[in-house]
Amino acid sequence: MLSLCIQVFAVLAVCSADTDKRDISYTFRAWNIDQPLKEQLAVVYKEMESLKHEQAVMKQKQEALSQALPYCSQKPIDTDVEMNLTSLQTGSSHLPYTLTQGEDGAEGSGEDDSDEALDPCFHYTVLDQAWRATNYSTKKVSCDRSVQWKGWYRLFYRGKTIQMPERCVKKEMCGTHAPLWLVGGHPRIRDGVVTRKVCGNWRNNCCLFKSPPIQVKACQGNYYVYKFVRPEACHLAYCADINTLVCGKCKKSESCISRDKITWMCKKNKMRVKANVHFFATYPASISGKVNTIVYRKVYVNQGEAFNARTGVFRAPFSGVYQFFFSTQTGGSGTTDLWLVVNNYWVAVSHSNVQGSNSVGNLSTYMTTLRKGATVYVTQNRGRSWATSASNTIAFGGSLLMVRKI
In angstroms, rounded to a whole number, what is the distance separating the alpha carbons of residues 356 and 160? Predict the structure, then answer.
């Protein structure tokens, strides 16, 4: 009987603790096994009654909270109350979320990652308040000085992502007297966290109120997070540009742009050209005398297909910076010269002068900037170069180091 009661007590304690682990924790009260059975049971029953009481209190709190939320969402909030209940207005939410990005830039599963642990793009507070919109005229004046700002925020309008305006907003809009707008524009993703000035429009002066700077970061998925701070005066409030609602519809491969900061559109990002051009070829036999163009027949690498094995000529597929190398093995007495020819100009030489029966290897390199379509090849002006099918001593190769507009 005692063991059964103890098991029941343990189950009740665990289930009750799991109801809300943030507010409730239980510690088993130890009793002496040597005590009489009646006294041991009394201790168990007392603990069970205590648990039942705490469960009843917690249930009352949950019911009160459920009743309070709908009431607060319908009832206008005074400025004094707004300090603690900025989110409890019509169409508003002010809840912390931990988000991750999917492949299409949408909000993902929320799984933690070491790089995401400190990234504000994944740890922010949702700020969805319709009165912050640039098309919302002042009815009940709000002031962000009374808000206890903490951490990073992402702006929404009725559940859709939105961003701060980048141009002056008329006074008496955004639910306040002097609307706050972002000076200097939003950053790019590669800029990381940046600091931007914030101005408030009043008395025909777009920046009469210079609010303390805020931090901004661009995130994958065409949205931004802001580290808001308290303005220095009332009544000032951060604006949400209603014109930027289209930005939330942009794909991962698109950017949200605007020339006049009024009409926004999604534009496909330009594809970056990858510098993926490499080649390496050899001549598998000896060469004597003058050869206008050495045809390197044995090709090991031809990434980008820019080298022609039938002609021995490399043709630049992109404008940019290239590096080339060419080598030879001189056999027998005399002078041997191999030249690198770029657009029919002799630009670099591999020179050797061997006496007697000696053999000398020589490797030359050359770096230059080429336009798309430029030709490069190697010619032997004089002498004798020695090679076999396995030696790879007569070689020619190169790589595109960097794409560059010329």
Answer: 84
